[in-house]
């Protein structure tokens, strides 16, 4: 078996396990495997487990070949993979990501519902990062094309730009997304969420992901958008984030840790054909 494919609310990932298969983790190979027509197709690759002593590490790759510091849906999917493959025999464990350690709790024996302590969120321009003087980027006016919006930027390991609007849509996410993702204000590029507040315990987001484009759901985006709405005083600390692919529960605790609870679904286990790599020539 070369790979296992899962999705989390329609945000799909391919798990490639270096303990089971040889895979050269080059930009070209990542782009090809993730390609929706010439490859298997996915919103990214989860490469691991990379086991170092008692630590379990995973690498998170976007379809454009860039590496992400964190992925909420990716962490839940990877945790389910570890359970399915017998790597873990406890209901709670930590994982190492480029963006820091996360604490995972399996909420059911089959790993279909998983909770993750994603760590804390910072709005510091130096941490996200956002260009300009050091500040918290909260409710800042931002010129976008021939319009202007108000942005709140957050990092939960990976960077996010949250834009509250009265109405959100796929079309608007696809219009604003590339402009925000690649704007010079964001030296490491950035994920973008359009945010509509439904009430103090429900928000709706439309997502444009750094290195992946429009996606149906995003765990770290849910954490960032919920944290931004909470920082702006628009919601309580327990809320549901509604996305086109489904919803995620967020709980921001007293020490600022953001807890994300969501589902995971298995799609397939598979083998790459030798012919796949000919597309690289
Ligand atoms: N594209 C994101 C990583 C994946 C985030 C998303 N799929 C999630 O579930 O958090 C980035 O470059 O930061």
Overall pLDDT, averaged? 97
Strand percentage, roughly? 35-45%
Ligand species: 2,6-diaminopimelic acid
The level 1 CATH classification of the largest domain is: Alpha Beta
Radius of gyration: 18 Å
Looking at CATH, the homologous superfamily of the largest domain is Diaminopimelate Epimerase, Chain A, domain 1
**Which structural class should the secondary elements be placed in?**
alpha+beta
Q: What is the CATH architecture assignment of the largest domain?
A: Roll
Largest sheet: 12 strands, mixed
Shape: globular
Topology diagram in text:
Blueprint: E1 3-8, E2 11-16, H1 27-34, E3 45-52, E4 55-61, E5 67-68, H2 72-84, E6 92-97, E7 100-106, E8 113-120, E9 140-144, E10 147-155, E11 159-164, H3 170-181, E12 191-199, E13 202-209, E14 213-215, H4 219-231, E15 238-243, E16 246-252, E17 257-263, E18 265-270
Parallel strand pairs: 2-3, 11-12, 13-15
Antiparallel strand pairs: 1-2, 1-18, 3-4, 4-5, 6-7, 7-8, 8-17, 9-10, 10-11, 12-13, 13-14, 15-16, 16-17
The structure holds 2,6-diaminopimelic acid (API).
